[in-house]
Amino acid sequence: RPFFGSKRVARLQTADFEQYRAIRTEKVSDATVDHDFTYLKSALLLEFKKTPSRVSRVPHIQKSGEDNVRHGFLEFDGYEKVLAQLPLSLKSLFVVGYHIGNRRGALLGLEWPQIDFENGVIRFIRLQNRKPVPVAAPIYGDMQEWLRRQRAFRDEHFPESRFVFFWYPADREIGPTSKKGHGGRRNEPGTQIKSFYASWRAAVKDAGFPELLFHDLRRSAVRNMVEKIGMSEKRAMEISGHKTRSCFERYHIVSLADIQESGKKMDKWMKAQRSENAHQRSGRRPKKR
How far is the C-alpha of 118 from the C-alpha of 107, rounded, in Å? Predict the structure, then answer.
């Protein structure tokens, strides 16, 4: 609204959107502007479908065509380096994020009743586009150790804290004098972690990955499950909380096992064709197997 003001939808032209993009891209990427336009177009379509319609037409909005394939991944050696640099408050959060690949908001909202140590499962419901998405993720790898350590510290120092990820006393400092300060408002120890931008940036820089985003853990976990472990896409989506398969297209993830199996089948077919052609040239029919 600050940009378009009171201009009517019917009067919007291509030049208006081009000007908006030119101004916005001074501070953000073309992909972010594309997201802006996606929300705007969705709102206009909703109004267009109403009876009576408050929008006579939905204008064409040109996208940038910017590559939407995500490229940020963290290999296992990088995982260990970043873990070593993170402050205590973020270590368990990082471990769980790298293992099961859920969104930061979903992880920060985890509560202890959702952690089932006995069966080795984390169960919770997260919202996506206002719709509930059930998540059932296994507790595996380093998760068991770090979650139990987190629980023990909580039971000893903050027994009333219901959130799994909370601030440790040593990590509550903020400001330029604290290298690992969390970069937000001062929080009381034991309270839920909400913002940790400065702590994250300092840790990943020290670990040698200055461009690493927390969201890259989501991509890394899904890729590990599908490419490294050979897990089905359906099961990986159930663990990571992805609702549609489009994540695999955006992350450019394919199963290495599927590729190898496809290669074996094609190789077998090629050999059969070559054998058949050789027998035809010699006037003999190939033996059936």
Answer: 20
